[in-house]
């Protein structure tokens, strides 16, 4: 009894000290947030970007040097990632939403259309053809057959089998245990990042990139390490640059080929090098392969590498013109599919069962001609763009031409002016700070695209519509 009370005597002051250290940390945190807000305002005044990799690196070196052991350094580095993410969020939140962001253009285009204006849509990537009739028939047949109840978070067995069979064509034998059906590739990406990474971990993103990888990471408290690629290097990432973006906290590399927004397909050798690097460092590769059918050239799935920490996200949105059905899947090792399934179960129980039956019918039938048709339309853009003084690498696939405007014109300002004249396009800034670029989507009939290009030409040449 007296032993217990003397232990308690020793415990109480330690607890009190722990409380006061924690409170001190909370006070410091609020001081830090206030500083982040003020830095954000100053940066906005200067037109400087929120992210500053060099400063972050210098601070990390000081933090690591201040630690007594490797374990402490690893913990401090993770805490630093959390703090850096918070600063970015605070600084970005203080900024007024850019009138020229990708989503702002889309919203404004929709508003103008509702007000009766005729808008040429070259800002979104969405096939304009109908899904195969068998998908629509399967949707109503599923309802009639009573497939209208809750299902498992992993998805219906037949659809998982069909996806496993389709993806096994890339050389790694897969079973339904490697498949989770998701609400589009977007939710598969969210599930992979949120359930496989922890706050303080790092994700390498190769830019320009579809913004959701970085946005999901930030939301999960995961630090984004950006590897910039350039038009001059035909959007090909250097292995040495990916390597130097990797730290002991890095857990995943996100890749997306054919790429949104550049249309790039990586040469097989470069992709194999990335997969080899990930395997050596035991990193996940999140390979978003939703544009796989949209390629002019030879394309390789990341699954061909055999790297056992590969996660592929797929969707029927683009391959089967089923964007509004919201159905896709992820391929992953069994343990990872189960982790993703736990989060999916929490968020939405399961993907709507009738929609899964429609997806199954779509996978079993001939895909509609959306990919062939869109690629044909995409071919019409480069000659026109070149004639207008735009600079670009010829797309290898996907649905887009990512082009630099002439004479230092800003993509956001040009997009706003185009919108006034009836053309919606995506400013490059939304794909990782490529301000002088615009992304032109080729998902409309060729004469409509030609009309869009006329409007763009009139804006960049400074003439009237
Ligand atoms: N990945 C990329 C690269 C995309 O461009 C998109 C949609 N534009 C998605 C994923 C999301 O597709 P889904 O409709 O399957 O959610």
Explain what the structure shows.
α6 packs parallel to α13 (353-364) and α7 (184-196) crosses α12 (334-348). The chain contains 17 helices and eleven strands. α10 (268-280) links the parallel β5 (250-255) and β6 (284-288). By secondary structure, the protein is α/β, with parallel strands linked by helices. The model has no long low-confidence stretch (mean pLDDT 93). The chain has helices at 2-46, 53-65, 70-94, 102-114, 133-144, 157-168, 184-196, 212-219, 239-245, 268-280, 316-319, 334-348, 353-364, 370-379, 381-387, 411-420, 446-460; strands spanning 120-122, 179-182, 202-207, 223-228, 250-255, 284-288, 310-315, 328-331, 400-404, 423-427, 437-441. The strands form two sheets. It has a seven-stranded mixed beta sheet with strand order 2-8-7-6-5-3-4, with helices on both faces. Strands 1-10-11-9 form a four-stranded mixed beta sheet, with helices on both faces. The longest helix has 45 residues, at 2-46. It has three domains: 15-93, Chorismate mutase (Chorismate Mutase Domain, subunit A); 102-129 and 371-460, Aspartate Aminotransferase, domain 1 (Alpha-Beta Complex); 133-364, Type I PLP-dependent aspartate aminotransferase-like (Major domain) (Aspartate Aminotransferase, domain 2, 3-Layer(aba) Sandwich). 4'-deoxy-4'-aminopyridoxal-5'-phosphate binds next to α7.
Summarize the structure.
It contains 17 helices and eleven strands. By secondary structure, it is α/β, with parallel strands linked by helices.
Q: Which residues sit in consecutive blocks of at least 5 with pLDDT less than 50?
A: none
What compounds are bound to the protein? 4'-deoxy-4'-aminopyridoxal-5'-phosphate
How can the largest sheet be summarized? 7 strands, mixed
Mean pLDDT: 93
- Strand coverage percent: 5-15%
Shape label = globular
| Proportion in helices | 40-55%
User: How is the largest sheet built, in terms of strand order?
Assistant: 2-8-7-6-5-3-4
Oligomeric composition of the shown chains: single chain
Number-wise, the strands total: 11
Structural class: alpha/beta
Radius of gyration: 25 Å
| CATH class term of the largest domain | Alpha Beta
Please tally the helical runs, counting DSSP H or I stretches of 4 or more residues.
Answer: 17
How would you spell out the order of helices and strands? HHHHEHHEHEHEHEHEEHEHHHHEHEEH
CATH level 3 topology of the largest domain? Aspartate Aminotransferase, domain 2
Question: Superfamily at the CATH H level of the largest domain?
Answer: Type I PLP-dependent aspartate aminotransferase-like (Major domain)
Distance N terminus to C terminus?
90 Å
């Amino acid at each position: 009894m007296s032993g217990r009370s003397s232990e308690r005597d020793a415990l109480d002051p330690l607890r009190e000290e722990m409380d006061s250290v924690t409170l001190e940390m909370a006070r410091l945190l609020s001081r830090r947030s206030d500083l982040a807000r003020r830095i954000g305002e100053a940066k906005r005044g200067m037109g400087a970007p929120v992210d500053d990799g060099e400063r972050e690196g210098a601070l990390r070196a000081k933090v690591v040097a201040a630690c007594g052991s490797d374990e402490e350094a690893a913990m401090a580095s993770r805490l630093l990632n959390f703090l850096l993410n918070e600063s970015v969020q605070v600084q970005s939140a203080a900024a007024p939403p850019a009138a020229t962001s990708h989503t702002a253009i889309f919203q404004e285009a929709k508003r103008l259309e509702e007000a009766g204006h005729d808008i040429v849509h070259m800002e979104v990537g969405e096939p304009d053809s109908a899904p195969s009739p068998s998908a629509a028939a399967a949707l109503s047949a599923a309802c009639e057959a009573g497939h209208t109840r809750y299902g498992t978070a992993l998805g219906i067995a037949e659809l998982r089998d069909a996806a496993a069979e389709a993806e096994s064509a890339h050389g790694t034998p897969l079973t339904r245990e490697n498949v989770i059906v998701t609400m589009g590739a977007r939710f598969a990406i969210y599930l992979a990042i949120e359930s496989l990474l922890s706050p303080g971990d790092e994700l390498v993103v190769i830019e320009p990139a579809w913004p959701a990888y970085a946005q999901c990471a930030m939301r999960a408290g995961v630090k984004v390490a950006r590897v910039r690629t350039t038009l001059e290097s035909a959007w090909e990432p250097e292995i040495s640059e990916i390597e130097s973006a990797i730290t002991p906290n890095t857990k995943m590399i996100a890749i997306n080929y054919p790429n949104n927004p550049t249309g790039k397909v990586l040469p097989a050798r470069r992709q194999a090098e990335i997969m080899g690097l990930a395997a050596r460092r035991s990193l996940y590769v999140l390979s978003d392969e939703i544009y796989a059918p949209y390629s002019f050239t030879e394309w390789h799935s990341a699954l061909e590498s055999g790297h056992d920490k590969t996660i592929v996200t797929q969707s029927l949105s683009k391959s089967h013109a089923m964007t509004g059905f919201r159905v896709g899947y992820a391929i992953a090792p069994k343990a990872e599919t189960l982790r993703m399934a736990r989060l999916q179960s929490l968020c939405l129980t399961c993907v709507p069962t009738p929609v899964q039956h429609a997806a199954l019918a779509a996978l079993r039938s001939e895909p509609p001609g959306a990919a062939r048709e869109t690629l044909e339309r995409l071919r019409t853009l480069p000659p026109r763009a070149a004639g207008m003084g735009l600079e670009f690498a010829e797309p290898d696939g996907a649905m887009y031409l990512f082009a630099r405007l002439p004479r230092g014109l800003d993509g956001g300002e040009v997009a706003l002016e185009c919108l006034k004249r009836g053309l919606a396009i995506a400013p490059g800034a939304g794909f990782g700070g490529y301000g002088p670029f615009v992304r032109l989507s080729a998902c409309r009939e060729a004469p409509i695209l030609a009309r869009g290009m006329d409007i763009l030409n009139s804006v960049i040449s400074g003439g009237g519509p």
